[in-house]
Recover the amino acids of this structure.
């Protein structure tokens, strides 16, 4: 019952931040357009493009790590499969 709490990686935190930033920038753009004020479409486009670029990079990094772990027979914590405590007994 004593489960170890996983630490959230910095890159994952940045990915969440990027998604939140894109969402808030999009909402702000639509709110400004709805209230009759002009939205700054260039700034919104730059923010959106930068965040999407980061998310693509993060997805590539995660895929590379996953493939490397599979190639070398390691679990998420870097322990070889079959060591005591690495079996998944759900």
């Amino acid at each position: 019952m004593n489960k170890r709490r996983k630490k959230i990686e910095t890159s994952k935190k940045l990915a969440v931040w990027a998604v939140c930033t894109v969402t808030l920038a999009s909402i702000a753009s639509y709110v400004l357009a709805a209230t009759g004020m002009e939205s700054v479409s260039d700034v919104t486009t730059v923010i959106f493009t930068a965040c999407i670029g980061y998310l693509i990079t993060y997805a590539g990094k995660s895929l590379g790590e996953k493939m490397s772990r599979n190639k070398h027979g390691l679990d998420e914590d870097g322990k070889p499969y079959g060591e005591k405590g690495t079996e998944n007994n759900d």
Notes: The chain has a mean pLDDT of 77. Residues 27 and 89 are 43 Å apart (CA to CA).
